[in-house]
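Extended Data, panel c. Modelled sequence:
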Amino acid sequence: MNAVDIALILINLAGAMAVFLFAMKLMSEGLQKFAGSKMRHWLSKITGKPLSGILAGAGVTAAIQSSTATTVMVVGFAGAGLLTLGGAVAVVMGANIGTTITAWIIALFGLDSGGEGSGIPFLPMLLGTVSLFFIFSKKSRMQYLGQTIIGLALLLIGMDYLGKAIPELSDEVVAAIATWSHWGFWSVLLFIVVGAVLTIILQTSAAMTAVILLMASQGWIEFPMALALVMGQNLGTTLTAQVVAMTTGTTGKRAARAHLAFNVAGVLFCLVLFYPICSGIMSLTGITDDLTSAHNREVYPLAITIFHTLFNVGTTVILAFFIPQIVKVVEWMVPERQEAGEEEFRLAYIEPNLLSTAELNLQSAKGEIEEFSKRVLRMYTFLPGLRTAGSEEEFEATMERIVKYEGITDRMEMEISKFLTRVGSGDVSQHASERVSSMLRIIDNLESIGDAVYQIAMTRKNKREDAIHFDDRLNANLARMSDLVQKALNVMDANLHDYDHVDLDAAYAAEHDINACRDQLRTQHLEDIKRGVYDYAIGNAYSSLYALYEKLGDYVINVSEAIDGSRKHSED
């Protein structure tokens, strides 16, 4: 074999792998767009019940064909408070079960879908034909279903190309690989490490599954070593979640560590029973130690897939009873941070690189917007401290915190806007595009709330510097106005946590109370000015404050209206 032959083999392999990976991406994106909003709603409603979390994780992963995508969502949901840590562990367990669907597709259809002597696999062509009925539909959801079907067809074609692109190795090369299997239990550990490293390089467990099945079916490795590669694959697939968690909060990091802890525990448990399990599957499928056996090559994919399924289902069933212990372990691994991190600017959920689909990116943006709202509400709670400050130092310290938060809100609005603009400029559905617009409106008004709080604080500061004092009646009126705005902010924050159940009536009722209070204070203020109850300087500061509170309330209702608009778009 000369250099040209080797180059052609590598090109064929790279092209076949490209088709396979593109097909996985196409199928995953189609399914996520087809069931994206329901998928988000389903996961966000998971409680701490292990069974519901496991079923949700398995169902979502089977649908989107990516345990990595599911795990990334879990990290985001956990960090946003939508999932308890125990619930996140359960969903991760279920994701490991759902990822076995890819192996079954490849084992049953991918390696020999065309039949003997077939130039073009029949099943992919059939799927491609079926997809035409959906791709040209006028309904976008049906188009996404068609994209999913054509992605599956390309997946099978990619597998067929991979099988044809892999060359027949010489007896010497096969013998060299076989020598790695002669070190007993150390060989098992070696292949686990190899499987983990290859999965990290490929960045997809689905592609690694295809590689393992092909290597085994070509007779390159013995059956036990193929099983070791499967275990290594389960370890390698945890890396992405660890990288994503680097920029999240404590809970997000713990969810990622739980993914790692669960998979490591599963591998360790399986190692204890490795040889009995291996022997049992070999007996069940009739596999022998002969690498050249035609029967072995035929049943290897099915046998490996059976092990893959037993491994993930078995470890999930066993470790599901130890979720509280796993939670304690990851809490020990990632202790609660003690520093006042909330007063430092950082994005908790948005990643520098866009995720695979708009649905996942919008979920990240939603988590960031909830964090934005939390910052704004926290900033608002500083205002009473300006009135009750007993010393100049206390007043200045509170004022400094408000100024710092105002800068944080400005930066958050800018960064989230940039992220949403990138999402909206990509290949997104109409619903996703409308949700991007709604989110942009939400963050614009959240930033305006921060500005209004800052303006109230500056008015308080100017009043203090000018030695302007309010009597008890004016202070009580402003306190009542402040409480009404606080209630409106609480309704807004609750609505931001669940776009599908927006309490717009409560939001309008809160705004009505703010406007009614403003009208009452304004009427009384004009009468007091006419009667000379207080001078112009006091009246100007007083009217400026209640007007700013009312203006802040306008921004608050704008947020709830934008959320309601986003919900209506998703229902159209």
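The chain has three domains: 1-34+111-165, 44-99+172-338, 360-571. This feature is highlighted in the accompanying rendering.
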